[in-house]
Amino acid sequence: DSDLSMRTLSTPSPALIFPPNSPGFQNGRGSSTSSSSVTGETVAMVHSPPPTRLTHPLIRLASKHQKEQANIDRLPDHAMIQIFSFLPTNQLCRCARVCRRWYNLAWDPRLWRTIRLTGETINVDRALKVLTRRLCQDTPNVCLMLETVIVSGCRRLTDRGLYTIAQCCPELRRLEVSGCYNISNEAVFDVVSLCPNLEHLDVSGCSKVTCISLTREASIKLSPLHGKQISIRYLDMTDCFVLEDEGLHTIAAHCTQLTHLYLRRCVRITDEGLRYLMIYCTSIKELSVSDCRFVSDFGMREIAKLESRLRYLSIAHCGRITDVGIRYIAKYCSKLRYLNARGCEGITDHGVEYLAKNCTKLKSLDIGKCPLVSDTGLEFLALNCFNLKRLSLKSCESITGQGLQIVAANCFDLQMLNVQDCEVSVDALRFVKRHCKRCIIEHTNPAFF
Questions:
Q1: Is residue 36 over pLDDT 50?
Q2: Which domains does the chain have, with CATH numbers?
């Protein structure tokens, strides 16, 4: 019975991962008849497990010295599994084709908590279908061990591939489909509805995704018990250009457990969307609205409602934010550790003063391209934020070497300083290097090296 069951098992070919003409597929072991090319596409093939002994004539003629070099076969199973755990999905499929022992070890459930596929030409829909089918053999139609699927950059991923994940992987906790611009809202709705444990979702660059919500069927079914809630805590919607305030309202109402939210370059978001967000998502620790040009000081007033829970905030290139918005954040978000305000040209020394005096535990600050910040602002930073480790002043026209020396004399733990395109002398840079020995200085002064 065991032999029969072994004969019925199958191994996805590396052709699922590499096109037949790719560099990684042109070695002796990968260029077998296990794959074919139809109109330039990668075709998924399936193989039976290899025989116990290889009987090829060339292998029988191998010398005794060559046989003795296969010391890897002497390793115990647990050591082999540990080695296999470092391999990506495509290499693991190749290992399964070496011999029967490697086949059994390569399909150990502990190695298949994660599927990671990359490449623009891979037929990822077919690959996911074959892999999940193999992983579902012990538990028909359900893959209980798979918790992470990363297919970022696989541009041929479509709704069909996401539907396969939604149907077969109820224990999924992490999904990354960054740059897969062919997927739509409906496919994402299927995943979040059928994978109740999903906590990490990255749909950055998926321009067709305008919302995160349950399907209508799941919403009707779960509303009495779960209140239409989704368990997502980490959501990255960077470059989802079509996302609007109404979509953000829906996301906030369904994803109330959010702690990390990234909306970089979601250019249609306004202060009204942030107001919706703060009504429902009161546990956010990290928030990015970089390049959201319609976000202003009123949006900062809404974000300040997070109070001491907020640790990371990025408002880079939000040109409508001034000292008023910074003052809201400084007054209420006293435990802020990271602030990126690059390109917010309305911020002055007064804003930096509010920030330094109230957010004394600040570790990273980027105020590059803020031409109204001068040495006076740096002095407030130096005298209040002793834990500062990263400081970017790129293109700050009013900064001089005197301000840098004050910072270096007080912030001994400084590890990164960016003064590119700033008029600072070599002596000031040497002073920083002398007092902050671990500091990496990014500069454009050819006399300092």
A1: no
A2: 74-110 (1.20.1280), 112-247 (3.80.10.10), 295-448 (3.80.10.10)
